[in-house]
Design goal:
- The structure is a single chain.
- With about 220 residues, the chain is mostly helical.
- The chain folds into 2 domains: about 60 residues; about 100 residues, Serine Threonine Protein Phosphatase 5, Tetratricopeptide repeat.
- Helix 1 runs antiparallel to helix 2 and helix 5 packs antiparallel against helix 6.
- The chain is flat.
Length: about 220
């Protein structure tokens, strides 16, 4: 009888130890889960804080640009608005583009009227950078008529038309630009303004490595 009781006690003790071990493992897993959740929560807070800081920086930059605009420091305000126009925050980008157009209009009124091909080219490139594509093509076309066979003018026209989605005109001007200066093939190949033409067979042919062959094309 004593032997049976002793065995029973031992069995009960083993059972209690197993139960305690399971409970300990459960508590340990629970602590790990809470720790993991805490890390994830901390990371999420960090990301939100970073986004908030970036947003506040964009707002601060916009306020600085507006201050320059109000003081009529248009030459300083314009590049600030150009950078803000590419902001990932739509409300900042939209307002920046509005002020950018106002800057451009004021600068155009205060600037002397263009007279030479160089004047029209400079205006065209400025409009191209500001993505005022209709004005860009207008100024660049005038420059091209005044000084035909200028590779930099034809290249700028090609970029403007490519951004407008006019692939035919873009390819025509790009071909002329490469014929006048073969190095434009390399430049076009790496210029984001020609992104819309990347898959076009004619574009790939123009900017291929041996594009220098076009220099001899009449």
């Amino acid at each position: 009888m004593r032997k049976t009781r002793t065995a029973s006690f031992r069995s009960a003790a083993r059972s209690r130890r197993r139960t305690q071990a399971k409970a300990h493992a459960t508590r340990k897993d629970s602590r790990r889960g809470r720790a993991s959740h805490s890390i994830q929560a901390t990371q999420a807070v960090s990301i939100r804080q970073k986004r908030d800081e970036q947003y506040l920086a964009a707002i601060k930059g916009f306020e600085l640009a507006v201050q320059q605009f109000t003081k009529q420091n248009l030459e300083k305000a314009k590049p600030l608005f150009e950078r803000l126009a590419a902001s990932v925050y739509p409300e900042v980008a939209d307002r920046a583009r509005l002020y950018l157009r106002l800057c451009q209009r004021k600068l155009e009124r205060s600037a002397p009227a263009p007279k030479t091909a160089a004047d029209y080219y400079a205006l065209g490139v400025a409009e191209l950078n500001a993505r005022s594509l209709d004005s860009a093509t207008e100024h660049l076309t005038k420059a091209d008529k005044m000084q035909p066979k200028r590779e930099h003018i034809r290249f700028a026209l090609a970029a403007a038309y490519a951004l407008q989605g006019n692939s035919e005109a873009a390819l025509e001007h790009l071909k002329a630009a490469i014929q006048l200066r073969p190095g434009n093939a390399y430049q076009a190949r790496h210029d984001e303004d020609f992104q819309s033409l990347r898959s076009h067979p004619a574009f790939r042919s123009l900017v291929r490595a041996d594009a220098s062959a076009f220099a001899a094309t009449p």
